[in-house]
């Protein structure tokens, strides 16, 4: 049995730590940061995001600025996406790989100006991404700068997000499309206001620099959200929300040992641009993926029973192992245990009895379409 | 965290209440809070023989799995079907509606902790 008493040693803290403590959060070590795992309870937080709204502190995420006349060229070369084609004010989900096409991280890139991009890596990969960008930017007229320590990130997610945010901002929220982001003020503080998220719901992410302005924004949003049923939500709810939405998590669905094609996300790789790191390996991976002769495929699983199925458990078909679970949890929205798993790309999932080996017991599962949950638009 | 004074406890964060040779067993509030929201429970089956210290079931929260240990020797004579059906009650009422199973004792239990000893244990861990 664990307790969180020793969690604060040598961990980085966000600007919102005391706000979390005042809300009674359970704080844990996440990628070297002291982060809220849950407040009142992860199920209620999850449901709040699906039905009303949730407020997340995501300040552990990395922020790297790439600026200068060749900023766009650096990103086209360093990443798999065609980022010079992103228009100013828009964002793109993309990946960065090594020479072998193995995924170093998945990230969102915001184009703030012609010569100014914000790259947002996962907390655990922020150092890797920063180092790769610095190395790959050599010879280009561009500057790569780590702003993670000075930047706070708050996410407001859920169907009530627009109604909560509108009175606090100068922005006309109907003008901010999905995957767009602009500079605005929220609660009097300058922020980058982006319509992005990792929950499967409508919502916003607010990048706040300096981070010391974050508590004022957090408190204002909590207060404005109260009549709308807004709940502070922790990383535990964030994980079940993204799982239901079929979104990959680095370290589970995405690793250095897999290419984007293996993860079923080959669409993020753009070959209609110049040379980029990993190109040759990714062209081969694309070929394997097209004829299903190799590589892997991510599938969704839904358990028939109630016992949770989880990461790293073997997936069986007719008693033979055909894959391994990458993520799994009881789905608060669906009420059943769900999971994602990798299988060989050529595996026929339409026949046979599928089950998960849960510590020696077999729990019957059905192969289902991803995502498990899709909001009505 | 204060614990009910009328119960006995174990180092595995279970409570035991003995009445007429039958022990009622559950997990403590401390354990329930450390686990987080409980989503699945599998107590031992009625009729099973258990020995103190053996694992005899599982409690799962959204994030983790914990074994249930038998704190006493004897035969399982009842299982809380309501907790199996709605595991959340283990977290909301661990000493009441959230009990897990009952064992008819085959011998006097040993090594159970007093409320004071158990409180010291949790304070040491917390």
UniProtKB/TrEMBL annotation, chain A:
Matching InterPro entries: GcvT (IPR006223), GcvT/YgfZ/DmdA (IPR028896), GcvT/YgfZ_C (IPR029043), GcvT_bac (IPR022903), GcvT_C (IPR013977), GCVT_N (IPR006222), TrmE/GcvT-like (IPR027266)
EC supergroup of this enzyme: transferase
Gene Ontology MF terms in the entry: aminomethyltransferase activity
Residue ranges of every copy of the Aminomethyltransferase C-terminal domain listed in the record: 296-374
Residue ranges constituting the GCVT N-terminal domain according to the UniProt record: 18-273
Pfam families associated with the record: GCV_T, GCV_T_C
This protein's UniProt keywords: Aminotransferase, Transferase
Record's catalysed reaction(s): N(6)-[(R)-S(8)-aminomethyldihydrolipoyl]-L-lysyl-[protein] + (6S)-5,6,7,8-tetrahydrofolate = N(6)-[(R)-dihydrolipoyl]-L-lysyl-[protein] + (6R)-5,10-methylene-5,6,7,8-tetrahydrofolate + NH4(+)
EC number: 2.1.2.10
Family classification: Belongs to the GcvT family.
NCBIfam families registered for this protein in UniProt: gcvT, PRK00389.1
Subunit annotation: The glycine cleavage system is composed of four proteins: P, T, L and H.
Its job: The glycine cleavage system catalyzes the degradation of glycine.
The protein, known as: Aminomethyltransferase
Originating species: Nocardiopsis suaedae
Lineage, highest ranks first: Bacteria, Bacillati, Actinomycetota, Actinomycetes, Streptosporangiales
Recorded name of the encoding gene: gcvT
UniProtKB/TrEMBL annotation, chain B:
TM ranges: none
Modified residues (N6-lipoyllysine): 63
Cofactor or coenzyme needed: (R)-lipoate
Cofactor note: Binds 1 lipoyl cofactor covalently.
Presence of keyword Cytoplasm: no
CDD domains: GCS_H
Keywords: Lipoyl
Lipoyl-binding domain segment(s): 22-104
Record family assignment: Belongs to the GcvH family.
Purpose of the protein: The glycine cleavage system catalyzes the degradation of glycine. The H protein shuttles the methylamine group of glycine from the P protein to the T protein.
Subunit field text: The glycine cleavage system is composed of four proteins: P, T, L and H.
NCBIfam families the UniProt entry points to: gcvH, PRK01202.1
Protein name: Glycine cleavage system H protein
Organism: Nocardiopsis suaedae
Lineage: Bacteria, Bacillati, Actinomycetota, Actinomycetes, Streptosporangiales
